[in-house]
Design brief:
With 591 residues, the protein is α+β, with helices and mostly antiparallel strands. Helices cover 50% and strands 13% of the residues. The protein binds a DNA duplex (12 and 16 nucleotides) through helix 12, helix 14, strand 10, helix 19 and helix 20.
Length: 591
DNA sequence: GTGAAGGGCCAC
DNA sequence: AAACGTGGCCCTTCAC
């Protein structure tokens, strides 16, 4: 592919070029940087292309005007990037948005992300890759040369080959978008794509913002948890070795508590009838007869928290910002949920000793908001089950209301046991729970569990119907969709019963979990606009929860904006069931 | 030593 | 073999 490109090294040419391009609907957009982390390296090139003409802006030439983010000569470029139109087409736009966000001080406006588009079209097919080379080859049949990607982008003078490579990457975005847009349209994925594209910039901002962690507090809390772990380990060791005579003979036959096989052997020696696996949910029923099992589960919980979230989490604290800048994957799961890594801020234990260390910096406060029972409300919306919806409309404790309906008692007469039971049932239903599993988590016999399930679905006929339909639809169409139209494809062998059942459960769960993800993503886009220009900044998201940090003086107004954004987002999809958001203003992440 | 697989637990 | 969904990260074990 031959590309016409123009290297831009001065303010006058930049102004002219930006004016020329500003009337376009779409512009291919790419950057070249010296490192992967925007806090580490320099932003060298910004490329924009309408497919015929490509400009390559050499930002090194603008450094003489001082700090890039304050550089007036770059204003035309900033305006073009910030505008909703032209839409900027980029592959993994989060990357470029972070760099221009940090170095030019601008939030990218309208975006079309070719990587996300490809992920949406693949609909969860794990075999498909989504690098630019893969996507270009799949949708355009052209090869992309990436050999210059890792070249030296800090050299005073760049080679012709480097500049041409940079230009090509921006130029190819234009035809690539056309192909992807066609496919998104024919697959009914435009709504989902819009949601995804609109939260790229908020997510980029969130990663740049990072989440403050009080390192001193963390170390203090860690030593407390460590002492606790040591005493639990000692007790467990004693209990396990009680069945091993040699232990006392040699005095040092220590069992490695982290070794699956050693612990299983020791349990067998004690006469514990251990199941096929010793996973928590399988072992839970044994706890009441065998205290050693309870101690083991306790040990594993503490050990998990300590190893995953101990000292090593401090290694993720950026020295320059004192904050943790985790990596969020926008389409982390086929359902559309986010995933997070390095570290995973979505699985910080609930224990106060961990959460209290995640806090606002001095002078700031956190505003924490989460949806109340969003997945169950989505299920209520999908099924239109009047009684189920009624339990939400009453505004009372949902699980208690459900317990009253299922067990046929007055709301005031619901026992704590009935409420707990209804709660487990409500959550389980979203995952397509069966009698066997329900029996396991409640301690009921399988027969009893079956009866309660029958009673539950007799109470909520609409729910039963929707879930059955969703299951069969998934098997028939080998796919499922969320409210925004996001799709997941299922691959299974219809001869394999287990695979068919699994597809049924997926067909029930994916639309619910995925719609919850749609809603959260919409909320991010609305929130981003509504807090723009204030002190508020997004610092974390956890599936149905959004954490914002802001100046203490703006706590109330931020809380209001956050709640309004989340409710507005949910109401776009949930129209027949009330939506509720809990908001807390707190110095730290305990709630 | 390194890497993958198996088993496990954290979050929602 | 059956299986309540989605992830990430840890440890041990085992092959190379």
């Amino acid at each position: 592919m031959e590309v016409y490109f123009q290297l831009i090294e001065d303010a006058e040419k930049l102004r002219e070029a930006c004016a020329d391009l500003s009337g376009e609907k779409y512009l291919g957009f790419d950057t070249e940087t010296s490192e992967l982390d925007p806090f580490d390296g320099i932003l060298r090139l910004v490329q924009l292309s309408n497919g015929r003409n490509t400009i390559v802006v050499d930002l090194l030439k603008f450094h003489r005007f001082g700090n890039l983010s304050a550089c007036r000569e770059l204003e035309p470029l900033r305006k073009l990037l910030a505008a909703e139109r032209p839409v900027k087409i980029a592959h993994n736009a989060k990357f470029d948005a972070k760099w221009v966000g940090h170095h030019l001080g601008v939030d990218v406006g309208g975006t079309f992300d070719t990587m996300i588009a490809s992920q949406l079209i693949a609909a969860g097919d794990q075999d498909r890759r989504h690098s630019l080379a893969d996507v270009a080859s799949f949708f355009l049949g052209t090869e992309v040369d990436k050999s210059e990607q890792i070249s030296d982008w800090t050299a005073e003078t760049l080679s012709d080959s480097q500049i041409e490579y940079a230009a090509k990457d921006a130029a190819i975005m234009v035809p690539l978008r056309e192909k992807l847009a066609e496919r998104l349209q024919s697959d009914g994925l435009e709504g989902a794509a819009k949601i995804e594209f609109d939260c790229v910039t908020p997510v980029a901002r969130m990663e740049l913002n990072g989440f403050f962690i009080d390192q001193q507090c963390w170390r203090e809390q860690l030593s407390i948890v460590k002492k606790e772990q040591e005493s639990i380990a000692f007790e467990l060791q004693e209990m396990l070795s009680a069945g091993v005579a040699q232990a006392s003979l040699f005095g040092s036959a220590q069992i490695n508590l982290d070794s699956q096989s050693q612990v299983a052997d020791a349990l067998r020696n004690l006469g514990v009838p251990i199941p096929e696996t010793t996973r928590g949910w399988q072992m839970q029923p044994l706890v009441k007869d065998y205290p050693v099992v309870g101690k083991l589960l306790e040990y594993r919980g503490v050990a998990k928290s300590l190893t995953s979230f101990g000292e090593n989490i401090l290694e993720f604290v950026d020295e320059r910002t004192g904050r943790i800048h985790a990596d969020f994957r926008q389409i982390g799961a086929p359902t559309g949920r986010f995933s997070c890594s390095k570290p995973n801020l979505q699985q910080i234990p609930h224990g106060t000793e961990y959460r209290k260390c995640f806090r606002a910096e001095d002078g700031n406060t956190l505003v924490i908001a989460d949806y109340s029972q969003i997945e169950l409300r989505i299920l209520a919306e999908f099924s239109r089950d009047e009684r189920f919806i009624e339990a939400f409309r009453s505004g009372a404790d949902f699980h208690a209301s459900a317990a009253a309906q299922v067990f046929g008692v007055k709301p005031s007469e619901v026992t704590p046991e009935q409420r707990t039971f209804a709660k487990r049932l409500n959550f389980g239903v979203v995952y397509g729970i069966g009698a066997q599993r329900l029996a396991l988590i409640t301690g009921f016999s399988e027969r009893e569990a079956e009866n309660v399930l029958r009673k539950y679905f007799a109470t909520y006929r609409g729910l039963d119907e929707w879930l059955r339909d969703a299951g069969s639809r998934a098997v028939e169409t080998r796919s499922a969709r969320t409210a925004s139209g996001r799709m997941a494809r299922f691959r299974f062998d219809e001869e394999q019963k287990a695979q068919v059942s699994s597809t049924r459960r997926n067909g029930k769960n994916m639309p619910i979990q995925g719609t919850s993800a749609d809603i959260l993503k919409r909320a991010l886009a609305i929130l981003h606009k509504s807090i723009s220009g204030t002190s508020a900044m997004l610092v974390n998201i956890v599936h149905d929860e959004i954490v914002v940090e802001c100046a203490e003086a703006e706590a109330e107004s931020t809380a209001q904006k956050l709640k309004a954004s989340m409710i507005a987002a949910a109401e776009e999809f949930v129209k027949h069931v009330p939506v509720d958001v809990d908001v807390n203003i707190s110095n730290d992440w305990r709630h």
